[in-house]
Amino acid sequence: MWFAYELNRRLAGTGVTSNAVCPGFVPAAIGVRRDSQVAEFFFLQILPRMPFARSLDEASDSYLVAVTQPKFANVGRKFIVDSEEKESSEESYNGEKARILWEKSLEWCKLA
């Protein structure tokens, strides 16, 4: 959230915006990174059958909606969940922490 909001602030006046998108709970995206075969099985075979879980295709749709729906055109510093704008946490709007994360990210990636 901080990174998306800080990117939006830095893009001000360019005609480009940045938003945060929540794809929901996507067990397949998590399962492939598990070290344990039991955990991998759980994330790839059990959790995807839960009613709250989303497939990779459904998760991808969340991002497509955010970039193609006219209601999000020219809108920045928003949190988009299930095709709707939602309030993110109060902490997510902390501009100082967003700036620090941005600077640390540049440092970690060895970028100027």
Chart the SSEs and their pairings.
Layout: H1 2-10, E1 20-22, H2 27-31, H3 37-46, H4 56-68, E2 79-81, E3 84-86, H5 95-108
Parallel strand pairs: 1-2
Antiparallel strand pairs: 2-3
Helix pairs in contact: 1-5
Provide a compact summary of the structure.
The chain is mostly helical and 112 residues long.
The end-to-end distance, rounded to whole angstroms, is 22 Å
- The percentage helix is 40-55%
- What does the radius of gyration come to? 17 Å
Spatially, the strands of the biggest sheet line up as: 1-2-3
Q: Work out the count of structural domains.
A: 1
Question: What's the tally of helices?
Answer: 5
**Main β sheet profile:** 3 strands, mixed
How much of the sequence lies in strands comes to 5-15%
* Oligomeric state: single chain
| Helix/strand class | mainly alpha
Mean pLDDT: 94
Q: Return the string of H and E elements.
A: HEHHHEEH
Number of strands: 3
Contiguous runs where pLDDT drops below 50 for at least 5 residues: none
**Rough shape?**
globular
Give structural notes.
This protein has one domain (2-108). Helix content is 46%, strand content 8%. It has helices spanning 2-10, 27-31, 37-46, 56-68, 95-108, and strands at 20-22, 79-81, 84-86. The protein has a three-stranded mixed beta sheet, covered by helices on one side. A hairpin with a 2-residue loop joins β2 (79-81) and β3 (84-86). α1 (2-10) crosses α5. The mean pLDDT is 94.
Main attributes of the structure:
112 residues; mainly alpha
